[in-house]
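User: Some background: our group keeps a shared notebook of sequences we're curious about, and every so often someone picks one and asks for a predicted structure to add to the entry. Today it's my turn. The entry only has the sequence so far, pasted here. Could you supply the structure so I can complete it?
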Amino acid sequence: MERLTGIGVSPGVAVGRAVVLAQPAEVFRFPVPPERVEREVGAIDQAREQSRRQLADIRARLAEGPARDLAPLFDAQLLMLEDPLLVGRAQQIVRDERVNAAWALHRSYEELRRLFGSMEDPYLRERETDVADVAGRLRMNLQHRGADLRELLKELDGPSILIADELTASLAAQLDWTRVQGFAVDAGSRTYHTAILARSLNVPAVVGLHDLSARVPAGSAIILDGTTGEVIIGAEGPELEMAQRRAERPRRRSSVASSSRGPLLTADGVAVRLDANIELVEDLPFLHESGAEGVGLYRSEFLLSGRSLEGATEELQYSAYRSVLEHVKPQRVTIRTFDLDERHLPGGLAARRNRGRVGLRGLRLGLAHPEVLRTQLRALMRASVHGSLRIMFPFVTGVDEARRARALLGSVCQDLDLAPVPVGVMIEVPAAALAADLLAQEMDFLTIGTNDLIQYTLAVDRTDDRVSDLYEPLHPAVLRLVRLVSRAARRSGVPVSLCGEMASDPAMLGLLLGLGLTEFSMTPTAIPLVRRVVAGLRADDARRLARHALSLATAAEVEQFLFDALAASVEDAGRR
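Assistant: Of course. Here's the predicted structure to add to the notebook entry:
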């Protein structure tokens, strides 16, 4: 038994088995019961077979096109699927340690990556990129095998405690907080964003535990005291029994699965709309369970998983879009055109190491290759007769691009003799945000994409560990841009919504509502929790909150202010 002391940021005692999150891959590690072991092993086999088919299809298509010289590159990846050091090792870890398949695959990849990194031959060291590609494909195919994290947690024996180096809003949204009793993280302080999140969720939490996530074995018994900041690993005997009695308190958190339906109003009667972000047709069953009013963002580029851009024919796209529209009707579906960069074009693999995602991307790529965009627009318009469709163009920087895209859509509508559908753009770069008033006069709706807007406003690559800590959603510049877009849309009389991790963050909802936003789109699993938070907010309080937050000079000051405001509201609720 080991005792650690961190900073208690959300009071209460929680007891459960450790579920450990490995960053930066965002892979959860948890024990599986003996009867589930072979199913996890089989899942790895299924992911390998699906990956093999995908790679063989990519190779065959390349061999028939102008990039035929690149086809042999995929022979090496096909061979890696058979390497016992990758898939075979992952299956061995599942059997030996009785852990979930995704974690075992992550472990085997990390071992193989270190092996390649230690080789002296530069050619062999470079093969680590191929290993990463193969492991990423296997992981993707594992993730879409039909069971999300909530379903997996249901199979654990009893309640759980989440252990991580950090807990983001996007991860919090995936969890069923009736199963996860509390969380402990390596990073953080009393004013850290995770602390605000813990207060919003009303779960015991301890932060500032340094290397806890690397020390806790999956499945070990954990006692967490969010008041004193103490975490006990491997708890047992009378101490565990006493902690369990202390943890048996009245539940104030409702089940994520039992969300209410119907219109959502704040406590003072302001209507708020919550839509879902989806990637695959397979995600649609979660839409109705979550209580979403529609689809606010369908990421059409996920149709390309396992196939080249050439393989995304008009008929294949039409079938997928029709399926989504029919499933969701009469509610609306907003489909974003391909948000890809030039690496996805035939022959584009050659440019992989020389060009980044700030070059030809999103609508720019579509306008540079109009045959690709026209094919997608034809498929979308043909599908539009089967439901309520809105089309959204990504990575727009100004009115000229928006006009050219709308003109191309008009040409497609004329060719098909179909009435146009509502058209909007994503506000993801500062140029678009600053020109939001001009774009609002040209478009039927605007959507703020916060993930990229934050990244490009602050010149921070979230995937670069050297600067990722500078990715600040609460940076004053970001908040001012969000307010600017919200005001521009309202003055032009066009709807505006916000999607991205900020939309699903319970700690930021009051601030966003105060900035004038009432439409949000997020992962379906976040919606029940967000509904509950919104129903407890007052729009007039949110506006006062936003006014003061906008007067602050740094992200840290905004974070401290939100924490203090939330703590005060929790205390007021307790007195009532």
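Suggested note for the entry: Residues 191 and 564 are 8 Å apart (CA to CA). The chain is about 45% helix and 15% strand.
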